[in-house]
């Protein structure tokens, strides 16, 4: 069942996530405030970050860095630092 959210990242009403994809309070905040489109954009950046920084998702420090980048991107409009990546101009 889909639900609509006012996406804090894209500043518009849009289709929300189908279910909470991330655990805990951060996951609930994402589910309630981030649309599918913004989440998909983040997933692409997340993959680039993990690959570029050779992150190991079994490592708690790497997971913490990734979570901070995710929150910064989705809620604070801060682009992650990905070598050689230039965000598209809107």
From TrEMBL:
It comes from the Bacteria. SUPFAM superfamilies: YggX-like. Keywords: Iron. The keyword Iron applies. Gene3D superfamilies: Fe(II) trafficking protein YggX (1.10.3880.10). Belongs to the Fe(2+)-trafficking protein family. Could be a mediator in iron transactions between iron acquisition and iron-requiring processes, such as synthesis and/or repair of Fe-S clusters in biosynthetic enzymes. HAMAP family: Fe_traffic_YggX (MF_00686). This is Probable Fe(2+)-trafficking protein. It comes from Thalassotalea castellviae.
């Amino acid at each position: 069942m889909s639900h609509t959210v006012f996406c804090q990242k894209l500043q518009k009403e849009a289709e929300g996530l189908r279910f909470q994809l991330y655990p805990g309070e951060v996951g609930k905040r994402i589910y309630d405030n981030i649309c599918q489109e913004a989440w998909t954009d983040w997933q692409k950046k997340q993959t680039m970050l993990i690959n570029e920084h050779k992150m190991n998702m079994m490592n708690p420090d790497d997971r913490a860095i990734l979570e901070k980048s995710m929150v910064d991107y989705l809620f604070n409009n801060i682009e992650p630092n990905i070598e050689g990546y230039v965000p598209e101009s809107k």
